[in-house]
Amino acid sequence: MSLLQITNLRTWIPTRDGIVKAVNAVDLEIEDNEKLGLIGETGCGKSILGMSITRLLQPSTKIAGEIVYKGKDLLRLNEEEMRKIRGKEIAMILQNPTTSLNPVLKVGDQIAEAIRLHQGLDKRTARKEAIEMLESVKIPLPEKRANEYPHEFSGGMKERVMIAMGLACDPSLIIADEPTKGLDITIKMQIVKLMKEVTKQRSMLFITHDLGVAAKICDNIAVMYAGELVEYAKTDEIFKKPMHPYTQGFLNSLPNMGLKPIRGLSPSLIDPPSGCRFHPRCDYAEERCKNRHPEMLIIGNGHYVRCFLYD
Ligand SMILES: Nc1ncnc2c1ncn2[C@@H]1O[C@H](COP(=O)(O)OP(=O)(O)OP(=O)(O)O)[C@@H](O)[C@H]1O
Ligand SMILES: [Mg+2]
Predict the structure, then answer these.
(1) Mind listing the pLDDT tens digit for each residue in 145-186?
(2) Of 25, 30, 22, 23, nearest to 2 (Cα)?
(3) What is d(CA 237, CA 249) in angstroms, rounded to the nearest whole number?
(4) How far is the CA of 305 from the centre of ligand 1 (A)?
(5) Which ligand 1 atom is the nearest neighbour of the CA of 58?
(6) Domain ranges within the chain, ordered by starting residue
(7) CA of 230 to the centre of ligand 2 (A)
(8) pLDDT at 97 (0 to 100)
(9) Which residue has the CA at smallest separation from atom 12 of ligand 1?
(10) pLDDT at 116
(11) For the structural domain made of 4-76+210-275+284-310, what CATH number should be given?
């Protein structure tokens, strides 16, 4: 059995303009120790998918399907049971440490509080552990830095603090949402190295735009387009043999691959295109792509693609 098995997940957000169908019929599995990358253009539903797992979404959101974690369907747990899962089992490392860290609390105290909450330790022991955590994420002079406030930390350092907070509960699964966004290349690579180290014995869903980073960290990659998964394969397969026209376009739009953008815009998730959601932007689109919705096809070697070209 996988650590996490998502089946037919749909996450819909009601808004004034209509229902945003942010996640549609997504199936996904994460094994013990597996690092799975989730990539796709802005607004395709990556963060909503990640937050559906820990159910950290506004109350009006409708989540349906199954999210089975260690044999339990998280969508059937009550809030109390879910809080325990969030605390002890699944940690989220989010996009923007500036908004996730409390500006008026010392960094050491914030981590100690997280540790106390999740592990029920007394203040002194939690404080000692917080300093060890700072050391484990390679923050120099951890005892001194523990007494500083978030604004005294650089962007990369803040990201390290976020990683330390995420690890405070010793989770089996980490959901990391763009942890390297906005960092310059040297710092980014340091964070990537750190993430690799701290996830050696854990599983991770790694959400990113940055394929270079995904390639360094992930075993497998899932490609998302307009709320759906359109391709899934081992990381080197995705790079060597991208099959979905969207994945090919996404790769070609990268700076070191020619910077050629995919024509057109990503579609509305309130009223997505009929048939294959990518057809209005696809160079290979045929009549059937407009009318029929393609199923995910198994190509072999654990490679899946949602496209009639391979029918
Ligand atoms: N709170 C919300 N209310 C209404 N719509 C939302 C809300 N949050 C997200 N959405 C919409 O849901 C869709 C998916 O958003 P999501 O944040 O998951 O995208 P993403 O793939 O993470 O993008 P990015 O790469 O920019 O982070 C988008 O169309 C977005 O506008
Ligand atoms: Mg996002």
Answers:
(1) 999 999 999 888 888 898 888 888 889 999 999 988 888 888
(2) 30
(3) 15
(4) 23
(5) 1
(6) 4-76+210-275+284-310
(7) 18
(8) 64
(9) 22
(10) 87
(11) 3.40.50.300
Tokens, residue 131? 């300093």
The CA-based angle 28-32-35, given to 5 degrees, is 65
Our CA angle for 17, 23, 29, nearest 5°, is 170
Identify the H or E element spanning 185: helix 185-198
Question: Which ligand has the minimum distance to the alpha carbon of residue 42?
Answer: 1
Residue nearest to atom 31 of ligand 1 (CA): 43
Instruction: Tell me how far apart the alpha carbons of residues 21 and 225 are, in angstroms, rounded to a whole number.
Output: 12
Examine the pLDDT at 101 and tell me if it is beyond 80: yes
Pocket of ligand 1, beta carbon within 6 A: 13, 15, 20, 22, 40, 42-48, 58, 209, 269
Atom of ligand 1 nearest to the CA of 45: 18
Q: Can you tell me which atom of ligand 1 is nearest the CA of 40?
A: 21
DSSP H or E stretch at residue 125: helix 123-136
Contacts with 29 (C-beta within 8 Å, 6 or more apart), sequence order: 2, 4, 5, 6
Q: What is the pLDDT of residues 237-292, one digit of tens each?
A: 999 999 999 999 999 887 777 778 899 989 999 999 999 999 999 999 999 999 99
> Which residue's C-alpha comes closest to atom 26 of ligand 1?
42
Distance 38 CA to ligand 1 centre (A): 14
Determine the distance separating the centroid of ligand 2 and the alpha carbon of 50, expressed in angstroms: 9
Percent of the chain's residues with pLDDT above 70: 98
User: Is residue 98 scored above 70 in pLDDT?
Assistant: no
